[in-house]
Amino acid sequence: MFRFQYTIFILAAVFAKSVAFTLPPSASGSRSTTHLNFFGGALKKAFESDDKLGKQQNAGLTNGPNENDNVTLNGKKIKAVVGQKVSVVAAQNRVKITYSCKKGDCGTCEIMMNGRMTKACQASIPQGKCDMRTL
Ligand code: FES
């Protein structure tokens, strides 16, 4: 037991010595920094920026989302993005669709989309007019 407590004490002392937190910027204009110097700077290197990767790229959709303004669900106009899954759009708009296989095999999730029976688990929002009705 003593050995364990001693080890904890040593680790706490090393940790306290290697971690430095600076308070938020004050009126004097000092910069807020956090030093991650535990274990010989191993964490500091883990969070460092890799300059070899070049300029940061947009992680989202290029040219923004392609929104479709002509989407209705049970007669109500809703927001949707072209290519978005119908099951996701229905859930976002709190329209309950019953699913079973979610693979397109059973037909439990069928809805009417632009006058045609469509499996909601497989369908996505098309370009242009999209009128969806649950059964
Ligand atoms: S849940 Fe079975 S076809 Fe959609």
UniProtKB/TrEMBL annotation:
GO terms for molecular function: 2 iron, 2 sulfur cluster binding. Residues 69-135 form the 2Fe-2S ferredoxin-type domain. SUPFAM superfamilies: 2Fe-2S ferredoxin-like. InterPro entries: 2Fe-2S_ferredoxin-like_sf (IPR036010), 2Fe-2S_ferredoxin-type (IPR001041), 2Fe2S_fd_BS (IPR006058), Beta-grasp_dom_sf (IPR012675). Residues 1-20 form the signal peptide. Keywords: 2Fe-2S, Iron, Iron-sulfur, Metal-binding, Signal. Pfam families: Fer2. This is 2Fe-2S ferredoxin-type domain-containing protein. The keyword Metal-binding applies. The lineage of its organism: Eukaryota, Sar, Stramenopiles, Ochrophyta, Bacillariophyta. It comes from the Eukaryota. The keyword Signal applies. It comes from Chaetoceros tenuissimus.
